[in-house]
Design a protein that fits this description.
Largest sheet: 22 strands, antiparallel, barrel
Number of helices: 10
Structural class: mainly beta
CATH architecture of the domain at 106-241: Beta Complex
CATH class of the domain at 106-241: Mainly Beta
Oligomer: single chain
């Protein structure tokens, strides 16, 4: 039943075939429902009103239905998701109804703020994602599945990379604010209640609406200044009970990790760097021979692999670096490949005339890539959604979602761990000759150094009453209560390595934890969110041409957060790492309790004349606990206009080709209260127990600091935006698209305070003194059609945005700060002439281009250009007015984000390929991770990419390499060659095959043998291939890291095999 989910637009065609057999009982209406290919449509709804009574049925495995007590001449309504609803008249004979595919599907009605809107009457910038686009993806969250699906909805991998508990940051239409403590993340509402995209199973989602412009999101007020994501979950439908199962097993591998050189190449590279720096070679010729022999498999007697470590005194663990000749790839030692995980989803739904229900459960059991230590995530989801008709004009609904996440990792798995992997020398062994882990390679800390385990319990509950007293009038009362309980246990345990005599020796863990020390901590927090909402809507039509809709309501929120944590050192025994098993007298507690609240009244008016001219006006009056006095309340209006050009009489000659053509324009203003400072108006006076720097009677005393100053004028950030859009559909709407251009201005952001006289005696308070402007556009184009029995579709989403600072306190116009009139993300650097090939060429260059940094310039070093002609290379006064020889060389912010989807189906087979990427982005990093040996020996790194370094024509080590990418390696002096410059600025644009799916749906006749209405087997691959010009060190999608770019948990390439079952 290939056409089950196809959305091509075809002409309606209902055929009726009389059954040769005589119908024995005229009051029993029988029939068969098939699709365009003649295959039975299983689960189609069939309803009829006969003699004033509504009766219904659902088609069985063969597409048959039967309804008793139907009078001849009654009208039947047949419907199924993805097909046009058909109405036929029953004449007393058996029916055969062919359902035709509908390209508009769920797009006819779009979920918007506090209701729905016909797509033809929609004026705002709204994008919709249906459930099909989220199915069968081997991802851990809805956020991952949405990346690249919606133009203007942007996701970025954070410093946690691809760790099992990582969260991607997201924004709508780019960076929204640079205000101190401000947050421009969109508001996420799940069935109208605040939630997050990591707390819901993709299988429970019916549709997602992304409200991108101010007119669409203004109705939600100050919490939605930068857009809204509305998630609508699946509901039960009247008819028979439906059971659905979706499960998969998946295997994950890192998408990109640096390639380490073999130990022989590494040792020669290290020796070159030392020689260039005037130092001694770390590896003697004898050691080089041992390393080479070991790699070639021809070790001399006594140099076998089990004795690659020559041994060392217990107090000299670092001598193993130059005293070893192993060949270890530390990235492969730390990361596993083909790591298995499983996911199971099951749902039960159905209902009758009075009650509809939807129940679902999900289990994700995922193992991480880390080879040493425990790296696991388990997530449990359960949801229940019940709607009951109290009367024919009143309904009550209850919606509940529960999520538990259990995540554990080694306590040592922090930014330092990822930093140290790159610093490990491949000559270092994993084990000593006695089979113990060698000290200093992180494995001991990862396996024995303690565990960090968290448990998150989230419960979302919603109770709603809805009344419809008369036609067109709806009243809804809604209460939402969300609670999040968080528990974290961590412990740091003593670790031991073994000396050459196999005696255990306590090793330093890292940081504050000395050898043999231990610590344990527990923290708990609870977040309670309350929301009460009342709104009423009335819609009516006058003279068949004037459509009105009025909405008014009240919204109240309250949030209370409580945290309690404590830690204690010196465990009696590491086998029981609990607080009561720790003995240190210094118990370190922590506690906080914070609250915030908002209240708002809102209204909206929609008017449409003859489905041609559209007007929408909304207004919201919001109050926030974050501000006081006359700053507490703000009023935020929006206006939207639309013109359905295709509905004009003068356009009728073109409607056979151009079916949809609508012009939209919107303007709106919003306030932003998403700031970290809950009480910016409050004079905080921090106090600390036993924290004095002096002693009284031998004890530290409690102290209290002088409170900082606050500005009484602090107020809302305001966000004003306008949007112009065009919707179009051609060729029976087989080609559909939307284009929007927007300008968004964020005003009164909290920025640096103007300098006050030094006599003030305190830090000057921050002020609302910064503005920025965002410009950009979104494009979405879709084509869907059939060629014979092959259905296919193409979808392109493309967006761009950039930000300009329009006001910022930077009186000296320093390059190190934002400045009025400058683009965000601009990179200023030097232009490079090339790498000097001889000392003479370098000397001649220095005469006219003397840098203000570095020394010992020689062949193999970088030659920078003197752009201002003063025979010096420097940054001038490091201001925008005098930047010396610096010039703009690139921009670090992504441009032209895109997603491309190709899909096809044929006789039960379905195929999809989804590509996602960034069209333009520049990346600068001069850390050893990126450029190799350019700092001290112990902090430098070496990857295969770094071996493309300059070597003279006379080199006999690696051989000449005068046309190299990197300059000569240097220990402790290399930064002179890696000043920010165009030569080593990387092109971080990329295209990634984000997902490939291949599925097969068994014929209904086969599926019915196991009692199923649908059986689909599928293969899915995530992050399969990446195309980029970046070097092989970085994943272009994950360039962050707590300890520097690229030093983070890698993203995963995942292969999965799955099964969909419907009963």
């Amino acid at each position: 039943m290939v056409a089950l989910f196809s959305t091509s637009l075809l002409h309606a065609n209902i055929t009726y075939e009389a059954n040769a057999a005589v119908v024995q009982q005229q009051s029993v209406c029988k029939g068969t429902v098939v699709d365009n290919n003649g295959d039975p449509v299983v689960g189609a709804s069939v309803f009829v009103v006969s003699n004033g009574q509504k009766k219904g049925s659902v088609t069985d495995l063969d597409g048959n239905f039967e309804i008793a007590g139907v009078a001849s001449g009654s009208s039947l309504t047949i419907s199924y998701v993805g097909y046009k609803t058909q109405q036929v008249t029953w004449s007393g004979k058996d029916l055969k109804v062919t359902l035709q595919e509908n390209s508009e599907m769920l797009d006819n009605v779009v979920v918007v703020g506090y209701g729905t809107q016909k797509k033809v009457n929609l004026t705002g910038a709204v994008s919709v994602v249906n459930s099909k686009q989220l199915e069968s993806r081997p991802v851990t969250s809805v956020a991952q599945a949405l990346q690249g699906e919606v133009p203007g909805l942007n996701f970025s991998v954070g410093n946690a990379g691809g760790s099992l508990n990582s969260r991607m940051s997201m924004n709508i239409r780019g960076i929204g604010t640079i205000g101190s403590g401000s947050n421009a993340a969109p508001l996420v509402l799940i069935d109208g209640s605040e939630g997050d995209l990591y707390s819901i199973s993709p299988n429970d989602i019916e549709s997602i609406s992304v409200l991108k412009d101010a007119s669409s999101s203004a109705i939600y007020g100050s919490r939605a200044a930068f857009g809204v994501i509305l998630v609508t979950t699946k509901s039960g439908k009247e008819g028979r009970t439906n059971v659905s199962y979706n499960g998969n097993v998946r295997f994950s591998t890192a998408t990109q990790i640096p390639e380490m050189p073999n130990s022989y190449d590494f040792a020669r590279y290290w020796n070159d760097a030392a020689a260039n720096s005037g130092g001694n070679a770390p590896f003697s010729q004898d050691m080089l021979n041992k390393i080479k022999n070991h790699i070639n498999g021809t070790p001399a007697p006594g140099e076998e692999v089990t004795t690659t470590w020559q041994g060392t005194e217990a107090n000299e663990p670092w001598s193993m670096y130059t005293g070893s000749w192993d060949n270890t790839n530390w990235f492969k030692e730390m990361y596993r490949s083909g790591v298995p995980s499983t996911e199971h989803n099951i749902s039960v739904s159905g209902g009758g005339n009075k009650v509809n229900y939807y129940l679902s459960g999900a289990l994700l059991s995922q193992r991480g890539l880390i080879r040493h230590g425990k790296d696991k995530l388990k997530r449990y989801n359960f949801s229940a959604k019940v709607t009951a008709n109290l009367t024919n004009w009143a309904t009550v609904s209850y919606n509940s979602k529960w999520v538990r996440e259990d995540y554990s990792r080694p306590s040592y798995m922090t930014g330092l761990f990822f930093h140290n992997i790159a610093r490990r020398w491949p000559t270092n062994p994993v084990f000593d000759p006695n089979g113990h882990y060698v000290h200093g390679n992180e494995i001991l800390q990862m396996e024995n150094g303690g565990l960090d385990a968290t448990q998150n319990d989230k419960l979302y509950q919603q109770l709603a009453l809805e009344f419809r007293p008369i036609k067109g009038w709806k009243i809804r009362l809604e209460g939402n209560y969300n609670t999040v309980n968080y528990h974290n246990h961590w412990d740091v345990l003593p670790i031991y390595y073994y000396d050459p005599d196999q005696h255990p020796v306590a090793a330093a863990w890292s940081g504050d934890y000395a050898a043999g020390k231990s610590n344990v901590g527990e923290s708990m927090s609870k977040n309670n969110y309350y929301n009460g909402r009342f709104f009423t809507e009335y819609a009516f039509t006058l003279n068949d041409k004037h459509d009105f809709k009025f909405l008014a309501g009240l919204d109240m929120e309250s949030n209370i957060y409580t945290y309690l944590g404590v830690s204690r050192a010196d465990l009696i025994t590491p086998t029981v790492p609990t607080l009561n098993n720790a003995t240190n007298k210094d118990v370190k507690p922590g506690f906080s309790n914070t609250q915030w609240a908002t209240m708002g009244a809102f209204g909206r008016i929609n008017y449409a004349y003859d489905s041609r001219y559209l007007v929408e006006f909304s207004i919201r009056r919001d109050g926030s606990s974050r501000f006081i006095g006359d700053k507490t309340w703000g009023t935020f209006p929006s206006l939207a206009l639309g013109w359905n050009i295709a509905n004009e009489a003068f356009f009728k000659p073109l409607t056979k080709t151009v079916n949809t053509l609508k012009l939209r324009a919107t303007y709106g203003a919003l306030g932003n209260t998403n700031i970290t400072a809950l009480y910016p108006w409050f004079l905080g006076q921090p106090a600390s127990a036993s924290a004095s720097s002096w002693l009284v009677n031998g004890e530290r005393v409690n102290i209290s600091n002088v409170p900082g100053l606050v500005s009484p004028n602090l107020t809302w950030e305001s966000v004003r935006s306008w949007n112009i859009g065009l919707d179009f559909g051609l060729f029976n709407n087989r080609l559909q698209g939307t284009f929007d251009y927007f300008v968004r201005t964020t005003k009164d952001m909290v920025g640096p305070a103007p300098v006050k006289p030094s006599i003030l005696g305190a830090t000057q308070p921050a002020e609302n003194n910064s503005d920025m402007r965002s410009n950009g556009w979104d494009l979405e184009v879709r084509w869907r059609d059939r060629i014979g029995q092959v259905g296919y579709g193409i979808k392109l989403v493309l967006s761009d945005d950039y930000q300009t600072i329009t006001r910022y306190y930077n009186p000296n116009r320093l390059l190190s700060q934002w400045c009025e009139g400058k683009r965000m993300g601009d990179i200023y650097g030097y232009q490079v002439e090339g790498i000097a090939q001889t000392n003479q060429q370098m000397d001649e260059w220095l005469v006219n281009n003397k840098p203000s940094w570095g020394s010992n310039w020689a062949a193999g070093d970088v030659m920078y250009k003197d752009l201002d002609g003063d025979k010096k290379v420097n940054s001038g006064k490091s201001t925008y007015d005098d930047m010396g020889d610096l010039t703009k060389i690139g921009n670090s912010l992504p441009r032209y984000r895109f997603g491309i989807t190709l899909d096809a189906n044929w006789k039960g087979f379905d195929f999809l390929i989804f590509m996602q990427g960034v069209g333009k982005r520049d990346f600068w990093d001069a850390s050893p991770y990126s450029v190799g040996a350019n700092t001290g020996l112990w902090q430098s790194a070496a990857f295969k990419d770094h071996l493309d370094y300059w070597r003279p024509a006379t080199d006999t080590n690696f051989g000449p390499n005068t046309n190299a990418y990197y300059p000569r390696p240097l220990f402790g002096q290399g930064s002179k060659n890696f000043q920010t410059s165009d030569r080593y600025l990387q092109n971080a644009a990329y295209m990634r095959i984000k997902n490939i799916q291949l599925g097969y749906t068994l014929p209904a006749a086969i599926a019915s043998k196991i009692g199923a209405s649908r059986v689909r087997l599928y293969f899915s691959a995530e992050n399969l291939v990446t195309f980029t010009k970046m070097n092989k060190i970085f994943d272009p999608e994950a360039t962050g890291g707590d300890w520097g770019p690229g030093k983070l948990y890698p993203l995963q390439r995942t292969i999965s095999f799955g099964l969909n079952l419907n009963f």
